[in-house]
């Protein structure tokens, strides 16, 4: 039973890595479409979102089979539950990459050109770093990697606040730029949400490692500091 379960864990690890890579590829293509103003790439991102959705179904099926047939205990049970939660977070990242691509199509079609996208590029870079760190964290559970994701999410939040200020300034400059400002602000918000999804997934891995949720750990840390 234990050997069979270890094989299942190996498969789940590979499938989660593949799902994270698909989500990362979708984000990269959405950013490429924005940089190059390429309508074809943007449309491709929307079409490819189905692959992420299908992989989620496959992983969820494997998790449910593991729970029913192999009846894992303690930490192994937590790992299967965390994997189920992670597929949900990765699926939403794929959805949001497709949402960004849809907004890129609007930017191209309406020829928006008043906002420089330097801050959005930085947000994209942070999202890619967070996804890569999440993959390592799933394979090599460690407090250091979990803390690294928290630090990157703080940077993502700060960049979102910066993008919001930049776009508010553009919209205040001329009412004609409001639609453009709102479109870019929506893209910034999607990047910020992607950071939140990765952080949520990281917190589930912490639950696997420690048996405690992140909120419990923070409450304990606060208590010890008092």
TrEMBL record:
Indicate the segments annotated as coiled coil, or none if absent: 142-180
The primary site where this protein sits is cytoplasm
Domain PhoU per the UniProt entry, residue ranges:
16-103, 120-205
A Pfam family matched in the record: PhoU
Compartment(s) of residence: Cytoplasm
**Keyword annotations for this protein?**
Coiled coil, Cytoplasm, Phosphate transport, Transport
Q: Does the keyword Transport apply?
A: yes
- UniProt key word Coiled coil: yes
One Gene Ontology BP term is: negative regulation of phosphate metabolic process
Provide the Gene Ontology terms for cellular component.
cytoplasm
- Into which family does the record put it? Belongs to the PhoU family.
What is the role of the protein in this entry?
A: Plays a role in the regulation of phosphate uptake.
> Quaternary form?
Homodimer.
Give the matching PANTHER family. Answer: PHOSPHATE-SPECIFIC TRANSPORT SYSTEM ACCESSORY PROTEIN PHOU (PTHR42930)
* Protein's UniProt name: Phosphate-specific transport system accessory protein PhoU
Q: Which organism is it from?
A: Entomospira culicis
